[in-house]
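Hi R.,

Here's the chain you asked about this morning:
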Amino acid sequence: MKYFSSRFYKKLIVLILSFYLCAWFFYWISGSQLRYETIIEKQEEITGSIGELSEGSTATQELLFNFDQVTALAFKFADYGRNLSGKLDIILHNETDNITYPSITVDVSQIKEGDWFLIDIPYMASDLAGKKGSIEFIGYSPTGEAPTIFYAENGKGTIHVNEKILSGQLCMIISGRHYYRLAEYYWSIITFGASLLAAGLFYIEFCRKHGRKNAILQLELIWERYRFLIKQLVSRDFKTKYKRSVLGYLWSFLNPLLTSLVQYMVFSTLFKSDIKNFPIYLLTGTIFFGFFSESVSQGLSAIVGNSSLITKVYVPKWIYPVTKVCASATNFIISLVPLYIVALFTGCRPNFALILLIFDIMCLLFFCIGLAMALSACNVFFRDIQYLWGVISMVWMYGTPLFYPETIIPEAYRSILKLNPLYHYVNFARTCIIDGVAPSLSTFAFCLGAAAVSLAIGCIIFKKTQNKFALYI
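And the predicted structure, written out as tokens:
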């Protein structure tokens, strides 16, 4: 205890309390998205009907639950122009655990031809993920004016209608929730993180007292020594971008707007009807991917472009690609202003979820820094990298849903799409801006994981090769 001053303990307490405050604020903003993911399964195609569910008739749809809890059901009925009467009992079964949940009674006179009939589940049918189940219908229609349900022959599962067996699935929508098990231990994880933070601060202070080296102290020393140079490099790169142009920094506003306007005119007729708030959907993708493409392209040539400085003056070499990305980030932050203005004009309202964009932007920034460091080091030895990157970034752009809906990608390939980090960074921003809610916990985890992996790989490649730069540039 005697090794550490009272000033250090005050700083420690402030940081731990700030950490808990940020954790609580995040928990509050994230809301239900932190605890569970809403899943909707649809079968909308119609190839026929199962027949009337008259007095005593039954129909059972076999299911395999892909979520933990069922919250609502919707079915598409037919009345064939008749005045329906009677009722319909709907019963949900968990066959794996041999559980039958309370029946829900529906007044069939409320059913309209071809409309989706929504049924809320009033009870907690939970812990269903991966289990077999079924939905059973029992008809009660003394007058014979009974409804029937549409179904699709190519759907999954089997339908039992009285003594008849049909291969397919009812035209239905199932809404459910998939709970994040990790969220149950949120505050335990936060406490563990606070403990690690405190231990790390003690270790850093111990190293400082005993003159030992570690990465954090090295970064502090570099910042103190080269702070002026770093600021000048970032300022130089940002100012030279629009040097001698008439409009100057105004292009930071106009570039994404004009690019998105051209894309909107081309793609709006193709995708507008399928995408919620297509202008913001398009502009968000354009701005975020534009920052990624520009920052990595600038960072890629950072070492080769500063060869005269590297061979004459000692400066930590990683500063060059990092400052290139930071200069692009400055332009990126400015370009967010027109995004918010357009969002307000298109009906998006300010909300607390927008604060979470700070997390998304920081993760994207570190992802770009890691990639820029790796590519700038490789470009010293293989100059073809700068030409290959142009092709790779173009393929990457078309492989990210910037101006088209992800629904046009076949279901079998969507899992591959979700391996794309830019998909998650762009989707994170769209969820906050357009939907006004926090993204799912898996999106947070993927954004953070992609940034950490990219930064780690970039640092390793750069550190192993930096001593040879002077021989090749």
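The chain has 14 helices and 14 strands.

Let me know if you need anything else.
M.
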